[in-house]
């Protein structure tokens, strides 16, 4: 962790130099006291690109943590979103920082690094940049639809109003970037990256990332009608990738960003740890959605083995909760419009675990002083404490020495994700392999990752996940899978994928719009119509105001190109 913190410190320190390089006109007389891009370190550029990828995914400390993952978790009921309608869930300005990180930072650094690396024969640097560029731009399409790309971040060409490219054309370009990256990984390079923050320069692991991103791309586009995409193309490409046996299939190849433990100069901790345990106010920035906690606590005969690693309960006894006027405590009877089978504010202790205090989907009531009651993000993946039934009030400022002290991870593409994607492909496209086998392996890979990650904190507590509990849980899921029809099977695959995706809202948001599953999500917490689901997000306010080629959407409900499902398919 100390190594990661030191590397991040070097990256931040180098930023002052590199950002000056990016904004300085090249025809100005060079100063001996200032570096230009030709004098910059290719390794520093690569580290900054990698850090930007993590921040685009998970957000940044002190900026409301608004990475794409959070924007994806809220509509699908992993994290609570206030609403009260989908249209009002976000303001276009909420996306300004993500767009800034993509277009003013990551892409510019890639464009600046590539010719320097090309000249020096550092082809692995180029390949990593291509892989990360493909991931970033696919994610931008997934969230916003048609966005600038071909004319974006061209530096010296000076295009101030880059045109908007179709999502399909950007996906095609991303696929070519991944193919080119694999080719570059196969070249002889003069030097490997000196500080690869993901894989320490291991080209074989980067090759698996590129191939797994292609798997994601072709699963994502299985419904698309655009040229070069669709079910038959997806089936063929996915089978080729399976046969190539170069996917992320083992936890040793997981693609994640490791955060550090520094809390200042720079703050290298997981942004969600900061939001839960060291926020500016007395309480956590987040509410976890009750649907998601209920899914893990009460869906099967025993709680999910990962639940104590995911969430930290600060309270078990809510007898004093009436002082914070929380309606789930003071409500005499359920509203007539509420489904009585769904949790109402508090997750029921059906399986013996009580104390899960969150919020329901699109509940926009005012925030009471409930910081001592909220369930917090736990050990995995943000580096918080393990839930050992100690029920301590640890939220808010000052509680900074909990768990791994924020040395969590941003899970971008994990081996379990690969198996869930393969399960969906086998079920819906009849690709190579058995969906049930993929499902079981995905569940076991996810549980193993979580348990191994939290083992030092859980060991000896008496609450660590046991092999017997894991085996029984998996067996019960598979029994339900065997008893269901194809709709039930797809629901179970996606439900288990959602659980494995905790703190990766990018893939959860994509999967929900693609499959319509889980089809039993808790409804919006309102008697009024919440409006059309967020089939895409608003364009950045700054981008829409400053780029004459971007017209703000009339509503954030326009499907992206690969989402050809009918209106009302998801809600």
From TrEMBL:
InterPro entries given in the database record: SusD-like, SusD-like_2, TPR-like_helical_dom_sf
Pfam families linked: SusD-like, SusD-like_2
Domain of life: Bacteria
Keywords in alphabetical order: Lipoprotein, Signal
Signal peptide range: 1-19
Protein name listed in UniProt: SusD/RagB family nutrient-binding outer membrane lipoprotein
């Amino acid at each position: 962790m100390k190594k990661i913190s030191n590397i991040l410190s070097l990256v931040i320190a180098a930023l002052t130099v590199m950002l000056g390089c990016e904004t300085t006109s090249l025809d100005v007389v060079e100063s001996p006291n200032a570096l230009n891009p030709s004098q910059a370190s290719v390794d520093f550029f690569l580290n900054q690109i990698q850090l930007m990828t993590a921040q685009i995914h998970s957000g940044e400390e002190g900026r409301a943590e608004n990475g794409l993952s959070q924007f994806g978790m809220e509509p699908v009921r992993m994290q609570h979103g206030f609403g009260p309608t989908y249209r009002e869930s976000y303001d276009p300005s909420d996306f300004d920082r993500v767009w800034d990180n993509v277009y003013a930072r990551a892409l510019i650094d890639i464009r600046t690094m590539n010719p320097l690396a090309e000249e020096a024969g550092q082809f692995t640097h180029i390949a990593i940049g291509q892989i990360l560029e493909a991931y970033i731009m696919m994610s931008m399409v997934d969230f916003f639809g048609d966005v600038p790309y071909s004319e974006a971040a061209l530096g010296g060409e000076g295009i101030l109003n880059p045109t908007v490219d179709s999502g399909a054309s950007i996906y095609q370009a991303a696929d070519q970037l991944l193919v080119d990256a694999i080719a570059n990984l196969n070249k002889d390079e003069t030097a490997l990256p000196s500080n690869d923050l993901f894989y320490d320069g291991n080209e074989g692991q980067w090759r698996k990332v590129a191939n797994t991103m292609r798997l994601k791309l072709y699963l994502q586009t299985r419904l698309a009608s655009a040229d070069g995409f669709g079910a038959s193309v997806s089936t063929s490409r996915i089978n080729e990738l399976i046969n190539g046996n170069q996917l992320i299939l083992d936890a040793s190849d997981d693609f994640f960003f490791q955060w550090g433990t520094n809390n200042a100069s720079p703050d290298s901790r997981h942004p969600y740890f900061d939001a839960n345990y060291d926020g500016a106010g007395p309480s956590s920035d987040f509410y976890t959605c009750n649907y998601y906690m209920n899914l893990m606590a009460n869906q099967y005969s025993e709680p999910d083995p990962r639940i104590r690693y995911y969430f930290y309960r600060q309270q078990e006894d809510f007898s004093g909760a009436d002082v914070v006027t929380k309606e789930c405590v003071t409500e005499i009877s359920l509203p007539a419009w509420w489904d009585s089978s769904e949790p109402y504010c508090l997750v029921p202790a059906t399986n013996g675990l009580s104390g899960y205090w969150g919020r329901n989907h699109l509940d926009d009531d005012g925030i009471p002083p409930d910081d001592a009651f909220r369930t917090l993000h736990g050990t995995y993946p943000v580096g918080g404490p393990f839930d050992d039934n100690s029920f301590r009030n640890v939220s808010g400022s000052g509680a900074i020495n909990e768990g791994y002290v924020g040395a969590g991870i941003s899970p971008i593409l994990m081996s379990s994700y690969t198996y869930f994607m393969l399960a969906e492909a086998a079920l819906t496209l009849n690709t190579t392999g058995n969906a049930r086998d993929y499902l079981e392996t995905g569940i076991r890979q996810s549980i193993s990752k979580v348990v191994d990650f939290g083992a030092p904190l859980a060991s000896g507590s008496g609450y660590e996940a046991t092999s017997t509990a894991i085996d029984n849980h998996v067996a019960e899921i598979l029994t339900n899978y065997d008893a269901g029809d194809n709709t039930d099977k797809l629901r179970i695959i996606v439900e288990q994928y959602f659980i494995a995706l905790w703190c990766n809202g990018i893939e959860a948001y994509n999967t929900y719009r693609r499959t319509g599953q889980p089809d039993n999500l808790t409804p919006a917490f309102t008697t009024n119509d919440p409006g059309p689901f967020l089939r895409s997000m608003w364009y950045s306010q700054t981008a829409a105001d400053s780029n004459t080629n971007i017209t703000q959407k009339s509503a954030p409900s326009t499907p992206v190109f690969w989402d050809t499902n009918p209106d009302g398919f998801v809600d």
